[in-house]
Design brief:
Helix content is 59%, strand content 0%. The chain is an all-alpha fold. The chain has two domains: 145 residues, Hypothetical protein af1432, CATH 1.10.3210.10; 100 residues, no CATH class.
Length: 286
């Protein structure tokens, strides 16, 4: 019999998260802005995932599970920054892998049944993958996709707030240390025009990085998420801080056409499970 996830499990997870993050706030004071950045991001991803999940119609236990996954999805970021002073995985360590190790080492999820504990860890492990594995269970992929959508929504909020700051003080942590030079790379242009996520190795400057963030719309799994992207105007805000060129105009024409197509025909992206889907009730089948 699978033990239900309840509100106590969520509150216990939040208490551990608060205590864990606090130790990084008492270290080097120059770390503090970046530690707070990831702390606040984690909390907002919880709100985003719950908002999408409620609209889809998940039941109470499924909402608890989604919230715990979101809370811990970036838990590796804090140790990553403490060790390497960067959030760039290729220059340090895969923060998802590190996060899973931290949760295991600290036995954070040991109060949950092993199948649910394993699902949480796998969803976290996959959240930053370029593509999701094909040989996973439907339940795990569902929650991984939900997390990836919620994560992107808040990253869009973070970067658009940053790009539109009045003081224009640069944060190389957010910008991945990329040079702020004109134009965009041909590889990035081709990726976007072909409705592909921009490959990170194609990035040559900050404009490319901004366009990579736009390309995430090609990896959105729920129509509810795309509607939020449209309503909040994230793409328009990024376009406003890019060069006013024909190539950029062409890219955004393709992006908006793609979004309109998906919203008008939601079956082309992930079809949410119905209300009270019983994902956890049938969880033992996974």
């Amino acid at each position: 019999m699978i033990k239900s996830i309840n509100k106590t499990d969520v509150e216990r997870s939040k208490a551990w998260f608060d205590s864990y993050v606090q130790q990084f706030k008492s270290g080097d004071p120059t770390w503090l802005p970046n530690i707070i950045l990831k702390e606040e991001h984690s909390r907002r991803v919880c709100k985003e995932i719950l908002s999408i999940a409620r609209e889809i119609g998940l039941n109470r236990e499924e909402l608890y599970l989604a919230e715990i996954i979101a809370l811990f999805h970036d838990i590796g970021r804090f140790e990553q920054f403490a060790r390497y002073h960067t959030f760039v995985d290729r220059d340090s360590v895969n923060h998802a892998v590190l996060g899973v190790e931290i949760l295991k080492d600290n036995k954070v999820l040991d109060g949950l049944d092993k199948p649910i504990r394993d699902l949480i860890l796998r969803a976290i492990l996959y959240h930053n993958c370029f593509t999701l594995p094909e040989d996973e269970t439907e339940t795990c992929l569902f929650f991984a996709k939900l997390l990836r959508d919620a994560d992107k929504l808040d990253i869009w909020r973070v970067v658009t707030d940053y790009y539109n700051k009045k003081d224009k003080k640069r944060n190389i942590t957010i910008e991945l240390g990329l040079p702020d030079t004109p134009d965009i790379s041909d590889e990035v242009f081709r990726d976007l025009i072909n409705e592909k996520i921009v490959y990170v190795l194609h990035l040559k400057n900050l404009n490319d990085f901004k366009l990579l963030q736009c390309s995430w719309v090609y990896d959105i799994n729920f129509v509810q998420t795309l509607r939020r992207v449209q309503e909040r105007g994230y793409l328009e805000m990024i376009r406003d801080v890019l060069p006013k060129t024909k190539k950029i105009a062409q890219i955004f024409s393709v992006l908006h056409s793609y979004i309109d197509r998906q919203i008008c025909n939601p079956k082309t992206i992930h079809i949410p499970l119905p209300a009270s889907s019983g994902l956890l009730r049938d969880f033992s089948a996974d």
